TrEMBL record:
Classification via InterPro entries: Glyc_kinase_flavodox-like_fold, Glycerate_kinase, Glycerate_kinase_RE-like, Glycerate_kinase_sf
Gene Ontology molecular function: any one: glycerate kinase activity
GO biological process terms on file: organic acid phosphorylation
Keyword Transferase on entry: yes
Keyword Transferase attributed: yes
Protein name from the UniProt record: Glycerate kinase
Family, as annotated: Belongs to the glycerate kinase type-1 family.
Pfam families in the cross-refs: Gly_kinase (PF02595)
Organism in which the protein naturally occurs: Streptomyces triticagri
Length: 419
């Protein structure tokens, strides 16, 4: 394929379910069955399943699989199309693979220095890179946090692997990070130099950035000048301050109140040193939406890699080919593990619902837990939500037995909405 036009993402997809690494073989079989039924069914309704993962229970691929099974329990010949989605956080690569991208694996530096296997997705010269694959919370050993020292170095290595594979358009999904280093590790992996008063490289992590004296970005990989890098995230926080990365997300990564203060000051200092190195745009980018995404890796991408910021779900819907799939649908089923206030601010179900409402297609949601009133759902374009807790009040059972319960929930949807 030729190179994508600058500033545009190409919308391409292949129908059907694939799978994440652990489910790939089974997911492919499901895809074949779903697609075969989609082309032979003659019913009035055509259902598009465009749901995110149920975090801690089911991948987005598995959600689609179980919803399909539940619908077909009631309407065996129902036409169903599955398009697992993600908003840029963990699960983004799996959604791209399910949408027809090729899964690629590479060994990179994990958040605490140990080598890990990370994956990205590639189709033609478009890559989907998920920073959580290299620098995510799930990679911390035995859940031991490292708020001051966790590094994004491996995310830079993952981006370089995508470049080496020929990518010229890169969707960089950021979320689920173990890190708060402002993207310094990522930039160092790509050729930047961050030195202390002794002209030695500063140690990994956000905390040591307080010792930064000199920043040199001249050695950054020159290929980024010709790459359309899209920063895809569901958060629009700035780098520092009361709504910045350390204050809002640091505690989720094990940061104490003292750690939050240290990290906020270190990242502010990082931005000041970069301003001396590259000019006033470094200060501007620090306040930009998305700068605080994934511990500030958004800032590193904006100031060092000339990235552009877009809400993650919008980018992924473009990449996965949601618009043509929506044209074929008479009902959309979306969802995620918890439908709550955060859902309304850039999460996948809200993005799916907004696009479907604009096209005049009705939307139903499934979830593990529902914490939104009907009025809020309606304002978001979701007619009704079905929660696992409607069937099983025990939350722990909802988590451990999510698949079978979700199938029963989908059967209810079929009875209520499908002909």
């Amino acid at each position: 394929m030729g190179r994508s036009p600058p500033g545009r993402l190409r919308s391409q997809r292949r129908d059907g379910l694939a799978a994440s690494e652990a489910q790939e073989a089974r997911g492919t079989k499901v895809a074949d069955a779903v697609n075969a039924a989609s082309t032979t069914a003659h019913g009035r309704d055509r259902v598009l399943i465009a749901a995110d993962k149920f975090k801690g229970s089911l991948t987005a691929v598995a959600v689609a699989e179980h919803v399909t099974a539940g619908l077909r329990r009631v309407v065996p010949e129902l036409s169903v199309e599955a398009l697992p989605v993600a908003d840029g956080g963990d699960g983004t690569v799996a959604a791209a693979v399910a949408g027809g991208f090729e899964r690629r694996e590479v060994r990179v530096t994990g958040p605490v220095g140990a080598e890990v296997t990370a994956a990205y997705a590639l189709r033609g010269d478009t890559a989907v890179v998920e920073m959580a694959e290299a620098s995510g919370l799930q990679l911390l050993p035995d859940g031991v946090f490292a708020p001051l020292t966790a590094t994004t170095y491996g995310s830079g290595e993952l981006l370089r692997a995508a470049l080496d594979a020929g990518a010229r358009t890169i969707v960089f999904g950021v979320g689920g990070s173990a890190t708060t280093d402002g993207g310094a590790g990522m930039l160092a992996a790509l050729g930047a130099r961050f030195l202390d008063a002794d002209a030695e490289p500063v140690a990994p992590g956000g905390g040591p950035l307080r010792d930064l004296v000199t920043a040199d970005l001249s050695g950054l990989d020159p290929r980024f000048a010709d790459v359309d890098l899209v920063l895809a995230s569901d958060v629009d926080n700035p780098l520092t301050g009361p709504k910045g990365a350390p204050a809002v997300y640091g505690p989720q990564k094990g940061a104490s109140p003292e750690d939050v203060e240290t990290l906020d000051a270190a990242l502010a200092h990082f931005a000041t040193v970069l301003e001396k190195a590259v000019g006033p745009q470094a200060a501007t980018h620090a306040k930009a939406p998305g700068a605080g995404a994934a511990g500030g890796i958004g800032y590193g991408a904006l100031v060092g890699l000339n990235a552009s910021f877009r809400p993650g779900i919008e980018v992924m819907l473009d990449v996965l080919g949601f618009a043509p799939a929506l044209e074929r649908a008479t009902l959309v089923i979306t969802g995620e593990g918890s439908l709550d206030e955060q859902t309304l601010h850039g999460k996948a179900p809200a993005g799916v619902a907004a696009a479907a409402r604009a096209a005049g297609v009705e939307v139903i949601a499934v979830c593990g837990r529902l914490a939104l009133p009907a009025e809020a759902l309606g304002a978001a374009g979701i007619r009704r939500a079905y929660a696992l807790t409607d069937i099983e009040p025990d939350v722990q059972r909802c988590i451990s037995d999510a698949g079978p319960i979700l199938e029963s929930l989908a059967a209810r949807i079929a009875e209520d909405y499908v002909s």
